[in-house]
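We were asked to recover a plausible sequence for a given structure. The inputs and outputs are reproduced exactly as logged, with field labels preserved.

PROBLEM: sequence recovery
POSITIONS: 322
GIVEN STRUCTURE:
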């Protein structure tokens, strides 16, 4: 989900409502529109995406496990709209989604809008990964109600639980720190980057915050955090009750964790280990090849004629006719 304030989220909700209304019976897009609907999920799609629509509906019926959240959320029926083109996506979202937005979850409507056409929006090769990301947003907001959720936590939790966080992403973040391209941690609480490259790094960075909390107290810690959060309505209060730290202390600890796990010192140390291992492997291969060459040389020498063949020697036979 795109990181919106409450006011901007309300505007987006109204834009989606207007967009859905705009796809009325009089439009060509609506004439081609198809639906898979039951009591749990409604999937809106266009011709050519029927197989994907069936996959999406099956995934909603068997949703991914979300650490810390009960399996029953989101409780309300969910609508997923598979936008087949940029034109339809813009009509649904009122042109409010930047070019890097891979999908949008609108908790107030229980609706997810996914672009399913090839474009720079698709951060993942499989739309199911984007669906898991947006599903986590719906579940988180459904469980916590209308309470404000910090931007970094909202995006970080969705990114971490979607399965998009892996080895390649971790190294991308490490290289960003080495090249000084990663946004500062406090920037995620102020404003989300507008350009594509910085926004993707911000997603990765926010995921490390949730990763840090999980590594500190396990998934059980998230469950306790959500319970206190739901009861008090305050993230700061829940944070103190669960982890015994304030938001400022958490950010400081988080900074240290990120620097240790993804900073340039780790990259250099891992690079040194890599080159050491590579050097040892090259040395081993050199010794093996040298031994093989010696063996081959010995075989060749064994097959060579003698330096003084027998027929070169003088014949001392007195009866030999000279």
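RECOVERED SEQUENCE:
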């Amino acid at each position: 989900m795109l990181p919106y304030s409450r006011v901007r989220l309300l505007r987006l909700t109204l834009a989606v409502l207007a967009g859905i209304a705009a796809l009325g019976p009089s439009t060509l897009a609506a004439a081609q529109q198809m639906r898979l609907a039951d009591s749990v999920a409604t999937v809106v799609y266009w011709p050519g995406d029927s197989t994907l629509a069936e996959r999406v509906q099956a995934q909603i019926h068997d949703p991914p496990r979300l650490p810390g959240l009960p399996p029953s959320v989101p409780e309300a029926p969910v609508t997923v709209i598979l936008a087949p083109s940029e034109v339809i996506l813009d009509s649904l979202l009122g042109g409010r989604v930047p070019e890097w937005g891979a999908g949008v979850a609108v908790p107030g409507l229980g609706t997810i809008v996914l672009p399913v056409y090839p474009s720079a929006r698709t951060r993942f090769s499989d739309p199911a990964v984007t669906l898991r990301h947006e599903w986590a947003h719906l579940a988180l907001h459904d469980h916590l109600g209308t309470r404000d959720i910090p931007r970094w936590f909202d995006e970080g939790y969705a990114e971490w639980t979607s399965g998009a966080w892996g080895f390649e992403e971790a190294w991308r973040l490490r290289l960003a720190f080495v090249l000084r391209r990663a946004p500062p941690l406090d920037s995620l609480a102020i404003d989300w980057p507008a350009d594509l490259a910085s926004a993707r790094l911000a997603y990765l960075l926010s995921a490390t915050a949730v990763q840090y909390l999980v590594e500190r107290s396990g998934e059980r810690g998230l469950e306790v955090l959500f319970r206190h959060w739901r009861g008090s309505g305050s993230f700061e209060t829940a944070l103190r009750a669960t982890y015994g730290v304030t938001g400022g202390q958490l950010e400081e600890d988080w900074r240290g964790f990120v620097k240790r796990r993804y900073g340039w010192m780790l990259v250099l140390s891992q690079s040194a280990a890599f080159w050491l291992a590579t050097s040892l492997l090259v040395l081993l291969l050199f010794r093996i090849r040298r031994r093989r060459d010696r063996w081959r040389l010995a075989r060749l020498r064994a097959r060579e004629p003698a330096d003084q063949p027998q027929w070169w020697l003088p014949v001392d036979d007195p009866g030999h006719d000279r």
